[in-house]
Amino acid sequence: MEDDLDHIEEGKVDWVKVLSSFYKSFEKRLEVAEDEMKEVEIQDEVSDEVCDKCGRPMVYKMGRFGKFLACSGFPDCRNTKPIVKEIGVACPQCHEGRVIERRSKKGRIFYGCDRYPACEYVSWDKPAGKPCPTCETMLVEKRNRSGTRLQCPQCGYTEELPDSEQA
């Protein structure tokens, strides 16, 4: 086939004839493959979470915005939950919630309070969980080519992060 395509490129052979001769044998093999193909059933991965509404185990599903948790009792129970990734930092605004990693509609990662909409804390930069020694505002991680540093969004204080702490 590759030689035939080279001949077509050189203008020595008519491309319609080459493709029609290839397709005749290919079409027969395609029909056989369709007849012999079995339907594939993808098993859901069970999580440790329990459904808030019916008590059945939650399973991981894949949707158009990525993975999420859904009740294994679908269609009787239609409960779903987002997969939450905690970063281990208390919310600097309300001091009650935890900061979690989220994704914007365009897929960009940002950080916000898990108590949203009661607390509207959000940040594009990952909170470090450490207060600024100058003004007590929570430091955030800033990444660049040379590594990661901690920076205060309020007063501009910066400190380099040791290599062992960089993720």
From TrEMBL:
InterPro entries attached here? Topo_IA, Topo_IA_core_domain, Topo_IA_Znf
Q: Pfam families, from UniProt?
A: Zn_ribbon_Top1
Please report the stretch or stretches of sequence annotated as the DNA topoisomerase type IA zn finger domain.
49-85, 89-127, 131-163
Report which superkingdom the organism of origin falls in.
Bacteria
Q: What is this protein called?
A: DNA topoisomerase type IA zn finger domain-containing protein
Q: Please name the source species.
A: Paenibacillus cisolokensis
Where is the organism placed in the taxonomic lineage, from the top? Bacteria, Bacillati, Bacillota, Bacilli, Bacillales
